[in-house]
Design a protein that fits this description.
about 120 residues; mainly alpha; 2 domains; 4 helices; about 0% strand; globular
Length: about 120
């Protein structure tokens, strides 16, 4: 039996696309969703399976000019869905600003559901 060593390390992303391999099925799914003009894709899974690496290498692997916004939802624990949506909205806006991407004009900045809806519309 061949021993497989997980190339992923907590807090470290692979440096080049050659270290990110065996994701053809996932890439095909993402590409089909983008072709269908889906603007929000949720990628989830167990720790250290390559979610962040997928987001890092996705533009180069698919030949697209997109940016990824990552949201560590484990830290979004809240008592209600509105608080979770508020957390997601704030994190998305911060990451857009960090990437020098102008955030969308929001109709109701105090309503987290409206903010999220406006952001992904």
């Amino acid at each position: 039996m061949q021993k497989f060593i997980n190339p992923y390390r907590l807090g470290e992303l692979p440096a080049n696309p050659a270290e990110f391999f065996d994701r053809e099925e996932t890439l095909a799914w993402v590409e089909s969703q983008l072709i269908a003009q889906r603007r929000l894709l949720i990628i989830h899974g167990a720790p250290l399976i390559g979610k962040s690496s997928l987001l890092k290498f996705l533009p180069a692997l698919l030949g697209i000019d997109n940016k990824a916004v990552t949201l560590p939802l484990a830290s979004a624990a809240a008592e209600n869905a509105t608080d979770v949506l508020a957390f997601i909205s704030r994190r998305m806006m911060l990451q857009l600003a960090e990437q020098d991407i102008a955030p969308p004009t929001l109709a109701a900045e105090n309503d987290p559901v409206a903010v999220l809806d406006d952001t992904i519309a």
